[in-house]
Amino acid sequence: MEIQEMVMEVLARLPLKSIARFRSTSKGWKDLIDSDIFRDYFISRNSSSSISWSIIQTTQPHNLTLEIIGHHGCKTWGLTRSPGSLMSFFVERAIKKLQVLACTDGLVLLYAEATDGTPMYYVGNPLFQEWFQIPLPPFLSLQDLEILRTYDRLNDSGLVTKMQSGIVVSYKVVWLIRTKLELFVPTKDKVDLVIYSSDTGTWETRHVTCLNTLFWFMKHKSIALNGIVHWIYGFTSNFVAHDFYGGHHDDRWSGFVNFPDRGVEELSRFRRTITTSEGSIVYFNEFTENGNRTLRVWRLVKYISGPEAWELSWDVSLEPLIELGTDYFPVVMHPLNSEVIYLWSTNEEMLILYNLRTHEFRLHEETADDSNKCMDDCILSFNGCSEYMQMHNMAALPNGITELLFSQYVLPRWMQRLPRPQPN
């Protein structure tokens, strides 16, 4: 084995936090670490290693660092604090509103509102504290912005990325936007998408046919995966999706998808959650049928409105948890392991980690130290979980509708930098 191969082997055993330090010591180390050969070798060698991640609330402004669930101490990065603590952010002018809008592939989209009402958007890489202010679309007047602010539509945004060799090479910020008051009347069938690209540093407008005009009267939450943005809106039984890197430039949505439990709502507890896990959109809900409580988990496989859009991954009895006498509901699925789901116990105020395959579960109580070890040997923290659940009134009646909407901030498997538009 040559010396360079030996060095690569040793380096690849270290966490990225340590590798980043070596990178700054000399040009030789930097050239080796920045090489495609070492990056690909590190990602391949550590493809099954644990990664730090957090669940960040996106429904309330002013509370930027409300981390619902966090993992740190994982092997790939070796962080000694939770990823949610990296969400530090500073602006040069006074602001009255600050909110996380979306987290995608290690990048974060923030919305800030100045004291005079001026909207500001930032895309950042919290790991390296890189932030870039997105310019406002030049074709929007001050009157247009005031209309959007009045109707609280400035945060109907999405962040979607393009990946190459496991790193982000470009991103797009997408607004669902209307610029005239009369267009809020549900007689129009067009949705206006305003898109900013990091490749060009410019905005474009795309008009897309909307099959459900009630779409415009709902609050929206976006989830991005594989270049596709999924918009979940209100308490409806479906969502829409659009591919922004697939080469589609027509006026149709890429998909209009019904939730898989549509039509059997009378059996469910309406604790619906939609998120990502192992590279797929997953949806889960709890059902009660003939006195039996089960958890069903689906994976999105097609962007169509029929039942073939979903594949049932798990249909698991929750009797072991019922025997504990706890009232609980599903919160989130592990973003990197679709066998592990997180549930919240309302009466115990504890987090339950449940393995859907083995039926093994662990109860975790909030602690101020690092004593909470989860199933992947990372350190589990959820000091903001109780506040978040109380905020969403999880003790509602069984037939009350409750949706859990948040963003998954998952650290990348490599030291990617924030893509920036090339100067003219």
Automatic annotation (TrEMBL):
Record-linked InterPro entries: At3g26010-like, Beta-prop_At3g26010-like, F-box-like_dom_sf, F-box_dom
Q: Which residues form a coiled coil?
A: none
Q: Which domain of life is it from?
A: Eukaryota
User: Which interval of the chain is the signal sequence?
Assistant: none
UniProt xrefs under CDD domains: F-box_AtFBW1-like
Pfam families in UniProt: b-prop_At3g26010-like, F-box
UniProt domain F-box: residue ranges? 4-41
PANTHER family, per database record = F-BOX PROTEIN INTERACTION DOMAIN PROTEIN, F-BOX PROTEIN INTERACTION DOMAIN PROTEIN-RELATED
What is the protein name given in its UniProt record? F-box protein At3g23950
